[in-house]
Design goal:
mainly alpha; 10% strand; single chain; 8 helices
Length: 159
């Protein structure tokens, strides 16, 4: 519904395959309201797993094939590699802590998730001490300007 991908289906055509199509609520609200989530590749399945929901996959998202989801696809390359079973904690650790690389803009190098979180907490605490958190809560335009400054700093960091 968001228009992020080509192949938009008319709402009336989509209704032959769905009981409900929600276009106003957040995906988290929908996950919290459902008993189980069916998906092909969406990150919403990972969010549902984190919230203790049953997840049925029809594709090969990164969280499928580890024994945590009911997978309807068989024979995919990803499933051939995923031969062991993971707990949800192991999947989360692999997806967020062990596998990804995190960039530290101050050190100009790769770092760990824990170090990034530590820095975020330190920055938040410092903002709280100075009363700067209220400025972060102010308005759409200010948030967009802040994002643009961060993007510009990232693009021109090496120059």
């Amino acid at each position: 519904m968001s228009g992020n991908r080509a192949g938009r289906v008319a709402l009336t055509a989509a209704m032959q395959w769905a009981d409900q199509i929600e276009s106003k609520l957040s995906v988290v609200s929908c996950i919290e309201a459902c008993d189980e989530l069916h998906t092909m590749t969406s990150l919403s399945g990972f969010d549902a797993l984190l919230r203790g929901k049953r997840v049925v996959t029809y594709g090969q998202p990164f969280y499928a094939g580890w024994g945590l989801t009911a997978d309807r696809m068989s024979g995919g390359a990803a499933f051939e590699r995923r031969t062991r079973r993971l707990s949800l904690d192991e999947l989360v650790a692999g997806a967020l802590l062990r596998y990804p690389l995190y960039w530290d803009w101050e050190l100009k190098g790769y770092t760990t998730c824990e170090a990034v979180l530590r820095r975020i907490v330190e920055q938040r605490d410092e903002l709280e001490r100075r009363g700067g958190l209220e400025k972060l809560r102010a308005g759409y335009l200010r948030r967009q300007c802040r994002k643009a400054r961060i993007l510009a700093r990232a693009l021109f960091a090496g120059t």
